[in-house]
Design goal:
This protein is mainly alpha-helical. Helix content is 76%, strand content 6%. The protein has one domain: Protein Binding, DinI Protein, Chain A (2-Layer Sandwich), CATH 3.30.910. Strands 2-1-3 form a three-stranded parallel β-sheet.
Length: 169
């Protein structure tokens, strides 16, 4: 009986201390996308990314023009071509089409990589500011408030504090 009472007291005390600990946790939230949209440097990132995309688009356009020229030439001369020349021209056209498709896929991947490369320093700066604000204000957790999976955000929005930390309006 004494052991049961002791066990009951231990469970009660443990539950009480966990309840107090849960009540002392401070939760904040921030709309990270909104923060990123007001961070200085976004315009330069966008210009650099657009320049990179333009170069890739120019190369793709050159390849497309070559493809269209080959199709036009093939169609114009098809009736007078020997079988071996016709097969060779068709293979050239198919090879070029495959190269265009491969280039397009590689370009998409390269654009994504370039965007990550350009935005990582800005993201790191924002994350550091969030960490500093969280530590300075005693937050246990910071939740990205623009995630749709959050049904309730009862914490404190720290966006104004982070903007202040970064010297933004």
């Amino acid at each position: 009986m004494k052991n049961i009472i002791k066990l009951f007291v231990v469970v009660l005390v443990a539950g009480f201390s966990m309840s107090i600990q849960a009540q002392t946790q401070k939760i904040g939230h921030i709309n990270f996308q909104e923060l990123m949209s007001v961070m200085p440097g976004q315009e330069e990132i966008n210009k650099a990314l657009e320049a990179h995309v333009s170069g890739l688009e120019a190369q793709l356009q050159t390849m497309q023009s070559e493809y269209e020229t080959k199709i036009t030439d093939y169609q114009a001369a098809q009736a007078t071509m020997s079988e071996i020349i016709r097969q060779t021209k068709e293979k050239e056209i198919m090879d070029l089409q495959q190269r265009i498709e491969a280039f397009n896929q590689q370009a998409q991947q390269e654009i994504q990589n370039k965007q990550v490369e350009l935005t990582n320093p800005l993201i790191k700066k924002a994350q550091e500011a969030i960490s500093e604000v969280a530590k300075e204000n005693g937050f246990t957790y910071i939740i990205n408030g623009n995630e749709q999976i959050i049904l309730y955000a009862g914490g404190t929005d720290i966006l104004p504090l982070v903007k202040k930390k970064l010297g933004l309006q």
